[in-house]
Design goal:
The complex is a heterodimer of chains A (129) and B (413).
Chain A (H helix, E strand, L loop, with lengths): L1 E4 L2 E4 L2 H18 L4 H11 L4 H25 L5 H22 L4 H19 L4
Antiparallel strand pairs in A: 1-2
Helix pairs in contact in A: 1-2, 1-3, 2-3
Chain B lengths: L1 H18 L1 H18 L7 E4 L3 E3 L2 E8 L7 E6 L3 E8 L12 E9 L2 E6 L3 H8 L7 H8 L13 E5 L2 H5 L5 E2 L5 H16 L2 H4 E7 L4 E8 L6 E8 L9 E6 L4 E4 L4 E4 L1 H17 L4 H11 L5 H25 L5 H24 L2 H21 L3 H27 L1
Parallel strand pairs in B: 2-13, 7-10
Antiparallel strand pairs in B: 1-3, 3-11, 4-7, 4-12, 5-6, 6-8, 8-9, 10-11, 12-13, 14-15
Helix pairs in contact in B: 1-2, 8-9, 9-10
């Protein structure tokens, strides 16, 4: 499929894109996260698209996934209102505070901290400690 | 006493005969019951508790008297709140050598349920604990001879569905199978009790101090973070020898809030603070943060079911994505064709995923999620390697350049 973005034309292999997107969607909706951290590498590495095209479009793609999985989780009774009301305002507030801090910390450090955090969490889930 | 009862019953039966033929059979059925009850006449056990109100858990001293020489069990459950319990049976059936793939679900599991046994039975609980995750609820009941104490969940209505690969693909639970008889319902309820509460210590406790003369005392500890409202305690010796239910009230106050679907009470500020930290961290990292929030919640609040965690974090993530899309679309920085194209494929995946969450157990959830997080950690690490950074620097510069152009174009329009 050919697409045009800001005056440049790209060829996208939609078969890879759709299969990858489908698998990522199953996984992320099953475990309840957005899927962005997997979607961006898929589109940049597997589809060879430039970052400036990927940032917005991947967000749009995972938005489809998150909205339908929200509906399905709600349908299966997996949604808890009070719990949601406790987390939702905090998430919004975080979105306002974060840009203030963002200027002062290097994204590289944040990513490395996240790396360690993820490994610790993973080992916890796997019952290693 | 018995003869008088018999006379009265005979009179009732006679009246029924007079009223009609169908009545007579009903009376005959009724006649069977009293003789049943009067057979081994054992005095009903007595029970007293030291307080009727606790605040977010506490210890209740129970004392009473039961017929001497028999084991005594206490069945304790939350009356006011029920939760959902579900289990997907895909274990190989030894007799037929087939996997049943049946999905069991009930909405009527008490939010708290525990059977207390005499202290001497601790060894039996410990023996079952050695099986780790494979412990069997029905086996513990059998070993302790506590089968008669298992009453409340046995009566909850259980639906079961025949699942198939196709049904999973289209994201349905499968075909609803006809209702189960009492015995099977009871059997399945035991499995669901395990599926719901998980660890053996949550559903069994050997805390009763039983004297040879039949008097007993027990300190019943009610954990923090349980459902509020009325709880019942019944003393059970055997099928026919039970006490009346005594009840106490578990009170919780703000900021503790009972989560109805999750079946636990939680200080509502904890998820708030946690969510705030994760949201900030997520934005700094350039990702939604859902994949950090979920495992953190699971690790910090083991009482929360994984389905609720996944189902409630998802809508939270949805809004941050929505605002992101709005901001990008203002400066026309989204390719709608590409986004919608892959989005349709993701729509299908997102339809199936939540179904699978429901079908797997907490342990399977943790196992799979653990590996996903490890993969993610490797991805992140790769993004901090020098080679990637050099390439990324160029990319980021182009990204900034295009964004600037887009913003100017949006302003100009």
């Amino acid at each position: 499929m050919k697409i045009e973005f800001w005056g440049q034309e790209f060829t996208v292999n939609m078969v890879i894109g759709c299969i990858g997107g489908f698998l990522i969607a199953i996984m992320s909706s099953m475990f309840g996260f957005g899927g962005g951290p997997f979607m961006v590498p898929l589109m940049t590495v597997a589809l060879r698209l430039p970052m400036y095209l990927v940032v917005g479009s991947s967000l749009l793609a995972i938005f489809f996934n998150t909205s339908i999985s929200t509906m399905r989780h709600y349908q299966f009774g997996n949604f808890d209102l009070y719990f949601f009301l406790a987390m939702f305002p905090a998430a919004i507030l975080g979105g306002y505070i974060a840009p203030q801090i963002a200027k002062r910390v290097s994204p590289l450090v944040v990513k490395r901290v996240a790396c360690v955090g993820l490994v610790l969490l993973a080992l916890n889930l796997l019952g290693a400690y | 006493m018995d003869t008088r009862k018999g006379v009265v019953l005979w009179l009732v039966a006679a009246m029924m005969v007079l009223l009609g033929g169908t009545g007579a059979t009903a009376a005959a059925e009724r006649e069977g019951q009293p003789s049943d009850q009067s057979a081994p006449a054992m005095a009903a056990p007595t029970i007293t508790i030291d307080k009727t109100v606790i605040n977010n858990g506490g210890t209740i001293k129970v004392s009473g008297r039961a017929p001497a020489g028999k084991p005594v069990f206490l069945e304790v459950w939350a009356v006011d709140h029920a939760v959902r319990a579900s289990r997907f049976d895909s274990e190989l059936d030894k007799e037929t050598n087939k996997r049943p793939y049946i999905f069991y679900i009930t909405e009527g599991m008490p939010a708290y349920y525990k059977i207390f046994a005499p202290k001497e039975m601790q060894a039996k609980i410990d023996a079952e604990k050695k099986l780790k995750r494979k412990w069997s609820y029905s086996n513990v009941l059998k070993e302790m001879g506590a089968g008669d104490a298992f009453n409340v969940p046995a009566k909850s209505k259980i639906d079961h569905f025949q699942s198939s690969l196709m049904a999973s693909i289209i994201g349905s639970r499968g075909d609803l199978l006809p209702g189960m008889d009492e015995k099977e319902n009871r059997q399945r309820a035991m499995q669901l009790t395990k599926a719901r509460f998980g660890s053996i210590d949550k559903v069994f406790g050997a805390d009763i101090d039983l004297k040879p003369d039949g008097s007993f005392t027990a300190d019943i500890k009610i954990r923090e973070g349980l459902s509020p409202g009325k709880y019942n305690i019944v003393v059970v010796v055997d099928k026919k020898t039970k006490s009346e239910a005594v009840s106490f009230e578990n009170q919780i106050a703000f900021p503790l809030v009972y989560l109805d679907n999750a079946g636990t009470s939680l200080n509502i500020f904890y998820p708030f603070v946690l969510s705030l930290c994760v949201a900030i961290f997520g934005v700094l990292m350039g990702a939604g943060g859902g994949f950090i929030m979920n495992p953190l919640l699971l690790a910090l609040f083991p009482a929360l079911p994984h389905t609720i965690v996944a189902g409630t974090v998802t809508p939270t993530v949805l809004f941050s994505q929505g605002s992101g899309i709005y901001n990008y679309s203002k400066i026309k920085f989204i390719n709608w064709k590409l986004g919608c194209g892959i989005g349709v494929a993701m729509l299908l995946g997102g339809f199936i995923g939540p179904k699978l969450t429901e079908m797997i157990t907490l342990d399977q959830f943790k196992f799979a999620f653990g590996w996903i997080l490890l993969v993610l950690a490797v991805l992140m690490l790769w993004q901090t390697t020098p080679g990637y950074l050099a390439k990324n620097k160029k990319e980021q510069a182009i990204l900034k350049e295009f964004k600037k152009r887009a913003e100017e174009a949006a302003k100009g329009a």
